[in-house]
């Protein structure tokens, strides 16, 4: 089962985040084989961390909750909240298989939240497909109810990144600066 996990930083937690850097990395190293994508999000200045994205393939919801809430930064209070949802890897690959590689261009996390009939169930067409790093629906714990869509992509700017989701189909859309994470 695939899960999308977004730990959002608590304001003022940067010194603690920096102090726990190696503990966080060591914890994530334990999940290297299960990770589909990972990396930090940043404020508009492109330097101040605002959160941490992990898309991971785990046996069940209990394992996903343990992954999210046993994480050292969470345990120490770096994060203000955690978004943890079932997810489906529509692209069928990891971020390390993204043809565009780790560098070059601006990268974004786009989160669209909604309810009812799912929006954007398929990979977007046109040039956007080639820019997608990870893409899929956010789902209820049982994997049945659509709750939104999450995408990691390369785009020229925030508005182009937002365009990966169909306008008017979401109650709320967030766009965050993001970069590849991990030791690879």
What portion of residues belong to β-strands? 35-45%
How would you state the average pLDDT, rounded?
94
Shape: globular
**Percentage of residues assigned to helices:** 10-25%
**Category from helices, strands and their pairing:** alpha+beta
Q: What's the count of strands?
A: 8
Order of helices and strands: EHHEEHHEEEEHE
Physical arrangement of strands within the biggest beta sheet: 1-3-2-8-5-7-6-4
In oligomeric terms, what are we looking at? Answer: single chain
Largest sheet: 8 strands, antiparallel, barrel
Number of helices: 5
Which ranges are low-confidence, i.e. pLDDT below 50, for 5 or more consecutive residues?
A: none
Radius of gyration equals 15 Å
What features would you describe in this structure?
- With 184 residues, this protein is α+β, with helices and mostly antiparallel strands.
- It has helices spanning 14-19, 21-29, 61-69, 72-76, 158-162, and strands at residues 2-9, 35-42, 49-57, 79-87, 106-113, 132-139, 146-155, 172-178.
- Strands 1-3-2-8-5-7-6-4 form an eight-stranded antiparallel β-barrel.
- A hairpin with a 6-residue loop joins strand 6 and strand 7 (146-155).
- The protein starts with a strand and ends in a 6-residue tail after the last strand.
- The mean pLDDT is 94.
């Amino acid at each position: 089962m695939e899960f999308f996990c977004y730990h959002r930083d608590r304001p003022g937690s940067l010194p603690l985040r920096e102090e726990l850097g190696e503990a966080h990395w060591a914890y994530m190293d334990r999940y290297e084989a299960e990770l589909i994508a990972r990396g930090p999000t940043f404020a508009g200045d492109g330097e101040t961390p605002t959160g941490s994205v992990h898309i991971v393939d785990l046996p069940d919801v209990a394992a996903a909750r343990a992954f999210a809430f046993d994480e050292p930064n969470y345990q120490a209070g770096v994060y203000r909240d955690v978004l943890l949802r079932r997810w489906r890897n529509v692209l069928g690959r990891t971020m390390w298989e993204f043809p565009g590689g780790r560098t070059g261009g601006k990268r974004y996390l786009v989160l669209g939240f909604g309810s009812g009939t799912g929006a954007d169930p398929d990979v977007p067409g046109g040039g956007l497909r080639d820019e997608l790093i990870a893409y899929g629906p956010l789902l209820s714990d049982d994997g049945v109810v659509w709750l939104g869509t999450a995408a990691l992509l390369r785009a020229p700017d925030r508005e182009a990144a937002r365009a990966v989701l169909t306008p008017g189909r979401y109650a709320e859309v967030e766009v965050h600066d993001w970069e590849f994470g991990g030791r690879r």
